[in-house]
Amino acid sequence: MAAPVDLELKKAFAELQAKMIDTQQKVKLADLQIEQLSRMKKHANLTHVEITSLPDSTRMYEGVGRMFILQSKDEINNQLLEKRKTADDKIKELEQKKTYLERSVKEAEDNIRETLMSRRAQ
């Protein structure tokens, strides 16, 4: 009778281990993406601060591929604000995803603990 229980527990542990590895990789990826978005946001913020100190008549160019396009100061400021807003939204989304992943792993661990406790009680 002990053999089926052992196989069942072994299978549950194997599933948990696979889930843990997968989740850890996803959490690391989310952390890297958050870090990259934070850098992009900081860069956009610093650029915005520098641009606001320039006079309105300053000619500004935006890099597109291997060329530069003349843009107005307002257009560049709007692009930088949009870039920051997009980065903030993506960071919030990734934080929520990361929290969900960590919670799902904890629930799986708790389920296995409950299974072990019920097996010991029998």
From TrEMBL:
InterPro entries associated with the record: PFD_beta-like (IPR002777), Prefoldin (IPR009053)
Keyword Coiled coil applies: yes
Domain of life: Eukaryota
Pfam family, one: Prefoldin_2
Keyword Cytoplasm part of the UniProt annotation: no
Keywords of this entry: Chaperone, Coiled coil
Coiled coil feature spans: 77-111
GO cellular component terms listed in the entry, alphabetical order: cytoplasm; prefoldin complex
Single annotated GO MF: protein folding chaperone
Stated family: Belongs to the prefoldin subunit beta family.
Subunit structure of this chain's protein: Heterohexamer of two PFD-alpha type and four PFD-beta type subunits.
Entry function: Binds specifically to cytosolic chaperonin (c-CPN) and transfers target proteins to it. Binds to nascent polypeptide chain and promotes folding in an environment in which there are many competing pathways for nonnative proteins.
Protein's recorded name: Prefoldin subunit 1
